[in-house]
Amino acid sequence: MRIIYDLYGVQGVESGQHLALYDMDRNTIKETFERIQRQKKEKDQEAATNPVSSIAVQLDASGLCYSNRETYITELFNIPINSFSISQSVDAPLTESNRATVVCTAVNSDDFATGLIQTNMRHTFSPDTWLESGVAFGHGATLTLTGYRKLTKFLWSSFRSQCSRIERDYLQYSAGATLGCDIGESTVIKAEVSLDRTIKGVITKSWEKLRLYLSYQVGLENQVLSLQLVRPIRIKTAADAHIECSAKYDLMEGAHFEYGASKQLTEYSRLAALVRVGQSSGVKLKLLLTRGHHSYRFDIMFSDVIEPVAVLYGTCLPVFVYSAIHWLVINPYLNRLKAEEKASKAEELEAQLEKAKEEAREAIHLMRSAYDRNVTVEQCKGGLVIVQAWYGVFGATNKLIDVTIPLQCLVTNSKLMLPEHTKTGLVGFYEVSYGDEKQLAVKYRFRNIMHEVIINDNDALKIPRQSHRIAPTSSQAGS
Question: Which end of the chain has fewer CB atoms at under 10 Å, N or C?
Fold first, then answer.
C-alpha cells in the first residue's frame, strides 16, 4: 500500500488495487495500476456514450418446407430476405441534467427503402420529471416533444406530440397523453388518449403460473379488443440453458404455442431462440444474439399454416446454429482467452519468479547453520531428520525445488506440522509454476526408520506418522 501511495497518492489507495499487489515490485505495480486505470477510463467512456445498435432481418424459408429433393439445394441457397433494418444510437451527455441522443436507422423492405436520422435532447428536472425534444429527417421532417412525470409512488403520466412535414404544403400533427399505474411488479395499467379521439389501453397482471395481457382500442373508426392468457414454463438445464414454454390465447388471433431456449455464451453474449406455432401466424422462428448493447435478430417464416415439417425445421435449426457457433466460435474464443490470460500472468510473474528464486537461495544460505544444529540434535535422540524434500510439479524436472533445509528448520521436538494452505509462502519456497497443480514429497527418518509421504499443495502435513513407514526390502530384512 505504501508504494501505491507514494506513486499515486490517495487516488491509488482508494482504487483498492493494493489488495492484490503485495508481491509485486515498484515497476510491476506501476504498470499494473496504469493498465487498470486505462481499462477503467475506457469503460467509463463507453458507459457515458452508451452506444446501442441493432440489426433485424426477416427471412421467408417457406420454400424449404415444400421443396422436393431436386429443388432443395436451390431453395436452401436462395432464401429471400423480406426486410432488413439496422439502427445505431449514441448518447452524448452535455451536463448532469442534459443529454443528447443521435439515432440513425435504415430500412429496406421488398422494393421500399428509407432512412432516418434523429436527434433528441433530454433535460432532467428531477428523478421523477424529464422533458425531451427531437428532430428527425428522412421521409420528410418531424418535430417531437415528449414529457414524463411520476405523480405518486404508483401513478405516472406522459405525453407526446409530433408534427411532420410529409409534402411541401402538407403538415400532419398528432398528440396523446398516457396515464399509467404500476402496482408492484405484477400489475401494470396504462391508458392513452390521442387527438384523433382514440382511447388505447393495456392491462397486464402476472401470477406465479399465469400471465394476463389485455389491450383495447376504442375510436370512431376502429374498435379492437385483444386478450392473451399466457402459461409459462421455465426449466434450467445442467448446461445453464433456460428452456421456456408458453401457451397463449388471443381473442383476435386465436391460440398460440411458443417454446424456446436461451443460453449465456460468454460474459457479454447471449443466444436465444423462440418457435411460435399458431392458427393465424403459422410457424415462425426468432433467433436473437445479444453482445453487450448490440443485438442481432433473425425472424424466419417457415409456413403460413401449421405444418409438421415446418415445426421440425423451426426446432432443429436453432440446435444446429448453436452447435456451429459453440464449436466454431465460442470454444476457440474461450480457449484463446484462457491461453492469453495464462501467458500474460506467466509473463508478469517471470520477473517475480527470478526475484523469489534469489530470495529463497539467500534464505536457505542463512538457514545452513540452524539446519546443521537441528539435524545434530535430532540425530542424537533418534528424532525427525528430513532426508530429502521436493516441492513443485512432478514430471517436469525444471519445475521442482529442493526444500530439505527449510523443512528441517521447521522441525520442533521431533515434529513437523504445516497447515492446510499453499506452501508457496513458506521461507525457502516460491511459486515454481503458475496455474499448475503442485505437490510436496518428503522422505524422512524417525527412530532410524525411513518414512515417505507425498501431499498436494493445499493439504496439511503432520509428521512423523506410522502410515508413512517404508516397508523394508528383503535384503534389508535379512541383514
Answer: C
Q: Which residues contact 438 (CB under 8 A, 6 or more apart)?
A: 391, 392, 393, 422, 423, 432, 456, 457
> Does position 125 have pLDDT exceeding 60, yes or no?
yes
Going along 292-340, which residue ranges are E strands? 294-303
**Residues 468 and 451: beta-carbon distance below 8 Å:** yes
> 3-state SS string over 193-258?
EECCCEEEEEEEEECCCCEEEEEEEECCCCEEEEEEEEEEEEEECCCCEEEEEEEEEECCCEEEEE
Q: Residue 28: its pLDDT value, please?
A: 65
Rounded to an integer, what distance in angstroms lies between the CA atom of residue 128 and that of residue 150?
A: 5
CA-based Rg of the chain, rounded to a whole angstrom? 35
What is the model's pLDDT at position 409? 93
Structure letter (DSSP) for residue 468: G
Average pLDDT, the chain: 82
User: What pTM value is reported for the model?
Assistant: 0.59
Start-end of H helices in 59-142: 62-65, 72-76
Quick one: residue 291, left, alpha or beta (phi over 0 = left, psi -120 to 50 = alpha)?
Answer: beta
